[in-house]
Amino acid sequence: MPEVEIPKIGKVNVSRVVDCTGQVCPKPQLEAKKACKEMVEGEIVEMLITNPASIEAVPKIITKSGCSVLGTIKDGNTWKLYFKK
């Protein structure tokens, strides 16, 4: 998987991409929760989100699910949200 530069974090290797482009609440939140549950310790996931409401809600779900948010990068109309277990 690709190596990504996250501001204030540096370069990381992404293990998996969860594509939620075009999806609205609650689908991205459910996908984030599922990804956190399936991840192994140290794994980094990139989640693609296009819904502004989801980019507000998903980080809270990630944190509640035992993962930590590393950062978010806006790329056009898509947010790339990175999180780690």
Give your account of this protein's structure.
With 85 residues, the protein is of the alpha+beta class. The protein has one domain: TusA-like domain (Translation Initiation Factor IF3, 2-Layer Sandwich), CATH 3.30.110.40. The protein is 29% helix and 40% strand. The strands form 2 sheets. It has a 4-stranded mixed sheet with strand order 3-4-6-5, with helices on one face. Strands 1-2 form a two-stranded antiparallel sheet. A hairpin with a 2-residue loop joins strand 5 and strand 6. The longest helix is centred in the C-terminal third of the chain and has 13 residues. The two termini are 17 Å apart. The model has no long low-confidence stretch (mean pLDDT 96).
Task: Please outline the major beta sheet.
Answer: 4 strands, mixed
What structural category characterises the helix and strand content? alpha+beta
Q: Which percent bin holds the helix content? A: 25-40%
CATH topology: Translation Initiation Factor IF3
User: Could you give me the name of the CATH homologous superfamily?
Assistant: TusA-like domain
Radius of gyration: 12 Å
The CATH architecture comes to 2-Layer Sandwich
Number of helices: 2
* Tally of individual domains: 1
Outline:
globular
Low-confidence stretches: none
Average pLDDT, all residues:
96
* The level-1 CATH class: Alpha Beta
Biggest β-sheet: strands ordered side by side in the sheet: 3-4-6-5
How many E-type strands?
A: 6
How are helices and strands ordered from N to C?
Answer: EEEHEHEE
